[in-house]
Design a protein that fits this description.
This protein has helices at 29-39, 43-72, 83-101, 104-115, 120-127, 134-142, 147-150, and strands at residues 6-10, 16-20. It is mainly α. The protein has a two-stranded antiparallel ribbon with strand order 1-2. α2 (43-72) crosses α3 and α3 crosses α5 (120-127). The longest helix has 30 residues, at 43-72. It is elongated and about 75 Å long. It starts with 5 loop residues before the first strand and ends in a 9-residue tail after the last helix.
């Protein structure tokens, strides 16, 4: 008789799921299956709980970002419905990092420059790189807008 590798496990969430425990040594499989049944949710329930947790964290960050925007007088971002929350979070993370790690004068300069960057796409394209250093962020934000950009003349011609 071969030692079974697949077990039908009733998880703590109440769902039953077949699990392959071939990676567990043969003498420990039953104990491992028992431990799983007492301590783990099924994969579907685990993913749902993880998704809910991430959504809650994202909501908390967005609330903090909106408070930060009001405190510093930052304008609303423009873009698609999906871009705006993501870009708002990125702008908040970048600007708080700059303000926390630079002097007041440099931080004020960066905030003033950031007020002119209202397009969500700019924040998504330029600040989403995890390898950016603090100096890189300051340079990106302060050099993104020059006087010619601010004085751009809008026309009715879409081309």
């Amino acid at each position: 008789m071969a030692i079974p590798t697949k077990f039908s496990i009733k998880h703590k969430c109440g769902h039953t799921q077949a699990r392959d425990l071939a990676h567990v040594p043969a003498g420990k499989r039953k104990a491992h299956a028992f431990g799983i049944s007492k301590n783990q949710d099924c994969i579907k329930c685990f993913r749902a709980a993880d998704k809910e947790f991430l959504e809650q964290k994202n909501r908390e960050v967005l609330v903090a970002a909106q408070g930060f925007e009001e405190e510093h007088g930052l304008p609303e971002l423009t873009g698609s419905e999906k871009q705006i929350p993501w870009a708002t979070r990125l702008r908040y993370q970048c600007l708080t990092e700059v303000l926390d790690n630079t002097d007041a004068a440099a931080g004020s300069e960066v905030i003033q420059a950031a007020k002119a960057l209202t397009r969500s796409g700019w924040w998504l394209d330029n600040t989403n790189d995890p390898d950016l250093e603090l100096e890189d962020l300051v340079e990106l934000i302060t050099t993104a807008v020059d006087e010619k950009d601010l004085e751009r003349i809008e026309t009715e011609n879409p081309f």
